[in-house]
Specification:
The structure holds two protein chains of two kinds. By secondary structure, chain A is an alpha/beta fold. In chain A, 39% of the residues lie in helices and 24% in strands. In chain A, the strands form two sheets. Chain A has a six-stranded mixed beta sheet, with helices on both faces. Chain A has a four-stranded antiparallel beta sheet with strand order 2-1-4-5, with helices on one face. In chain A, strand 7, helix 9 and strand 8 form a beta-alpha-beta unit. In chain A, helix 5 crosses helix 6, helix 6 crosses helix 8 and helix 8 runs parallel beside helix 9. By secondary structure, chain B is mainly alpha-helical. Chain B has a single domain, classed as MetI-like (MetI-like fold). Chain B has a two-stranded antiparallel sheet with strand order 1-2. The chains are: A alpha/beta, B mainly alpha. Chains A and B meet through helix 4 and helix 5 of A and helix 7 and helix 8 of B. Bound molecules: adenosine-5'-diphosphate (ADP) and magnesium ion (MG). The site of adenosine-5'-diphosphate has 11 residues of chain A, from strand 2 and helix 3.
Chain lengths: 285, 290
């Protein structure tokens, strides 16, 4: 805790933030922190996107968030790293914490929060710069002042996502020349290079072909031991294959809500709610 | 009329319209060259660069027809204006685009438009009454390269602001989301992501502004002092090519008048050079980028 407090103060001083960052590299995906939401709700102006969310995400597990379109899955992910702040009129109420960090606190350090809680978007979104720059810009922001250290981080993360051999000879070329699947793996690697503790993924495979999609799926599985993953997916079979825990959400009276949470295997085997059962069987949703 | 006939008719019409602007440029070039031909034949092309100064006489052998001092003055005033205006215009655009919201943003937009629409003679008057006396404290006569550059800078700042803001607006809005998602702060986003990606639009604005500054006449006539000489400091009075044409065209005739057309031709040529150089510079920049 004192380490976290120190970080912000020393942020301008690269040396000390470097120490801090290498601290966390010793235990990637700091295993203890868990994400907790209590009575969480989100408004876009007068429109209530979701309400009454009470969950605790188990650390070092893959949690899948499933539900029909428009039930607020993306909105929920964007709440966890406060990206909804970008939308004028959005208002989060309730409690939301990650480890010791109170996410909704006005004094929450958003830059550090977004490092700890990494995001992978639905559509691959590399910056239209070289592959190398895609890594260097965020790493610089997070206090890695030495270029050689940034290169090491880049190499390690690209290896982690199995992209290193494909791109090691073209690091200076534009990231936009990569295929869709490669771009998405690049984005995952870019997020991993910041050593996050929690990974948010918003339908990371939905914009990809089956082969790339399969690769990403394997990749997510390989992350399980070191990171906490919270992923949205439309693909129930995928959720069943790779997730440990499942969150099922629904739209009631125009507002999103959670209808069932628990172990994936149990929910698929014996859903407690009738709605869940119908959704999982493909009758509804 | 059949559809394909309509298509080809529309195509011809559009082709005609767009070739018109090319034709206009050619026509202007041709006309300026034709009007300069008398001077070129009677005075000779080389004297415009070898003569030490500009002092036209009826007796061509006694007169001086050097344009170099005025070419340097034109370039100096316009470049200095751009150096002053570019950072201010860029900062303003960054402020408007990234830091302002709602009513205040609209207010700043309106102010920019108003400044853009100010008649240059009014800006010249302001320069004469307010700016020149201040510079006079530094050194007489106050009418100078710097005076012209400052007034021109005020004139071209709106051009830069408008083109820079629109260059930022044209960026993909997902960039902001992606950057925020990676915890990239605003300053780094602006400097290392948005600005490099918008550089094409931004530098196009700079080129347009420079061309406008080179071509402006009224302001420089009013505040630059109109002394034909090679400027040695920013506080020296100078006469630019445009100023020279405006001042002498009223009474010039014969070879003198023709020489003024020639200086118009040189001005047009330098403006075109600025455009082409700007394009080439951008190209090398973009290749480096990829
Ligand atoms: N920026 C926004 N402003 C207003 N309403 C929004 C915004 N984004 C999403 N919504 C609304 O919030 C609800 C949930 O959307 P979303 O989180 O995208 O759902 P999902 O990802 O589950 O499909 C939808 O009804 C959608 O129309
Ligand atoms: Mg969504």
């Amino acid at each position: 805790m004192s380490g976290q407090l120190r970080l912000r103060k020393d942020f301008s001083n690269n040396e000390s933030s470097l120490t801090k960052v290498s601290d966390c590299s010793e235990r990637p995906g700091s295993v203890c922190a868990s994400l907790k939401a209590k009575n969480l709700s989100l408004h876009y102006g007068d429109f209530k996107a979701y309400d009454n969310v009470n969950i605790e995400i188990e650390p070092c597990k893959i949690t899948a968030l499933v539900g029909p379109s428009g039930c607020g899955k993306t909105s929920f992910l964007n709440s966890v790293n406060r990206l909804v702040d970008l939308i004028p009129g959005s208002k989060l109420r309730g409690e939301l914490s990650f480890g010791n960090t109170d996410i909704l606190s006005p004094s929450c350090d958003l830059i550090e929060l977004r490092r700890k809680i990494g995001m992978v978007f639905q559509r691959p979104a590399p910056f239209p710069f070289s592959i190398k720059k895609n890594f260097h810009i965020p790493l610089k922001e997070h206090g890695i002042s030495k270029s050689s250290v940034r290169d090491e981080r880049m190499e390690q993360s690209l290896k982690d996502v199995g992209l290193w051999d494909e791109v090691k000879n073209r690091l200076k070329q534009s990231a936009c020349n990569l295929s869709g699947g490669q771009q998405q793996r690049l984005c995952i690697a870019r997020t991993l290079s910041l050593k996050p503790e929690l990974l948010l993924m918003d339908e990371p495979c939905s914009a990809l072909d089956p082969v790339s999609s399969e690769k990403i799926e394997q990749l997510i599985l390989s992350l399980r031991d070191n990171y906490t993953v919270l992923m949205v997916t439309h693909n129930l079979a995928q959720a069943k294959r790779i997730s440990d825990n499942l969150l099922v959400c629904w739209v009631k009276d125009g507002t999103g809500c959670l209808i069932e949470t628990g172990k994936t295997s149990e929910i698929f085997f014996a859903p407690a709610e009738k709605l869940t059962k119908e959704y999982l069987q493909g009758v509804r949703g | 009329m059949s559809a394909s006939l309509k298509d080809s008719f529309a195509k011809t019409l559009l082709g005609f319209a767009s070739s018109l602007s090319v034709l206009v440029i050619f026509f202007i070039f041709y006309f300026l060259l034709k009007e300069s031909s008398l001077a070129l034949s009677q005075i000779g092309g080389s004297r415009f660069f070898s003569d030490s100064t500009w002092a036209p006489e009826l007796n061509l052998a006694e007169g001086q027809f050097g344009l170099l001092e005025m070419i340097v003055a034109t370039v100096a005033v316009a470049t200095l204006a751009l150096f002053i205006a570019a950072p201010i215009g860029w900062f303003t655009a960054v402020y408007i685009h990234f830091f302002c919201k709602g009513a205040f943003r609209i207010f700043l937009h309106r102010v920019t438009e108003i400044v853009a629409g100010l008649p240059s003679v009014v800006l010249g008057l302001w320069g004469l009454v307010v700016l020149v006396p201040v510079l006079l404290n530094l050194r007489a006569p106050g009418l100078s390269v710097l005076a012209g550059a400052i007034v021109l800078a005020i004139m071209i700042i709106p051009t830069i602001v408008v083109s820079t803001v629109s260059a930022y607006q044209n960026l993909n809005s997902e960039l902001t989301l992606t950057s925020k998602g990676l915890g990239i702060g605003k300053a780094r986003f602006i400097l290392e992501i948005a600005t490099p990606l918008a550089s094409r639009g931004i530098s196009t604005g700079f080129v347009l502004a420079l061309a406008r500054a080179m071509g402006e006449t009224m302001v420089v006539v009013m505040v630059c002092g109109n002394v034909v000489q090679m400027p040695e400091s920013m506080l020296d009075p100078v006469r630019t090519l445009t100023g020279n044409i405006a001042l002498e065209m009223g009474y010039a005739y014969g070879s003198h008048q023709s020489a003024l057309f020639l200086s118009g031709f040189l001005l047009l040529l330098s403006v075109l050079t600025v455009f082409i150089a700007g394009r080439l510079f951008l190209k090398t920049q973009e290749e480096q980028f990829r």
